[in-house]
């Protein structure tokens, strides 16, 4: 009998939600970086096996919102909890439960669906420490399952998938077996460019950038794809840093993005990137909508 259902990954920023999802799917869909607020939209990816189909919703990290973009991100995450069959709560491998975790636990009290606690990054601690961490978390919530994993190495991810299938209903697949995401290709391309900017830029700038794909077209011979993108930032001083001395920083972002996009699209890529300033766009609903952060009813 085939099972099919929805699972969402929740947790504070940087606990490895996107890394775990990319490992399960077997290729990169969600961008990863060590900076908070990397994932801004709800990203839907699909895992299909003989046992069934899991549609994963990777949501933005739960945090206290400081602007309209922050509110959008938190609302996106919390709304998702009501639409799924099972929730995966990813945490760091630590027996200290901080304010961020307590805030999430508080939100989970009203949730009716099973919650699986996923203790990620087990490759960074000794095996004997895991039992103590499990014990601490068991006291704060009635979890359906507690599964330690390493999203980076893939250790114990098979066990996690089996646990998820336990809580899914029997039914038809939602997507074809070769579908791995419902993300439009332009959105994935813009996220790859934003990821490279996050990797190369200073800490305070990345939160304030968005990437808009102005044009994306494959040439007639199918061997080259032309992509024109705009990096939007909030301040003139940020624009200077993103471009860099004699354009060096923008060149670096463009080169690393192009390298990955060529692998992903399996064509040569002619990538052109511009930088524009849109002051306080993260608090402007029109800009948020134009940059792809749409409020859902």
Report what the structure shows:
It is a single chain. With 297 residues, the protein is α/β, with parallel strands linked by helices. 34% of the residues lie in helices and 22% in strands. It contains nine helices and nine strands. The strands form two sheets. The chain has a six-stranded mixed β-sheet, sandwiched between helices. It has a three-stranded mixed β-sheet with strand order 7-8-9. Helix 6 runs antiparallel to helix 8. About 3% of the residues have low confidence.
Shape descriptor reads globular
**Sheet bearing the most strands, described?**
6 strands, mixed
Strand content: 15-25%
Average the pLDDT over all residues and give the rounded result: 81
C-alpha termini separation: 35 Å
Oligomer: single chain
The low-pLDDT segments are 31-40
Q: Name the structural class.
A: alpha/beta
Number of strands: 9
Main β-sheet, spatial strand arrangement: 2-3-1-4-5-6
- Number of discrete helical segments: 9
Give the helices and strands as they follow along the chain. Answer: EHEEHEHEHEHHEEHHEH
Percent of residues in helices comes to 25-40%
The Cα radius of gyration reads 20 Å
Task: Give the SSE layout.
Elements: E1 3-10, H1 17-25, E2 43-48, E3 52-58, H2 68-80, E4 86-91, H3 99-108, E5 115-119, H4 127-138, E6 145-148, H5 157-166, H6 185-200, E7 210-218, E8 224-233, H7 236-243, H8 248-265, E9 268-277, H9 285-290
Parallel strand pairs: 1-3, 1-4, 4-5, 5-6, 8-9
Antiparallel strand pairs: 2-3, 7-8
Helix pairs in contact: 6-8
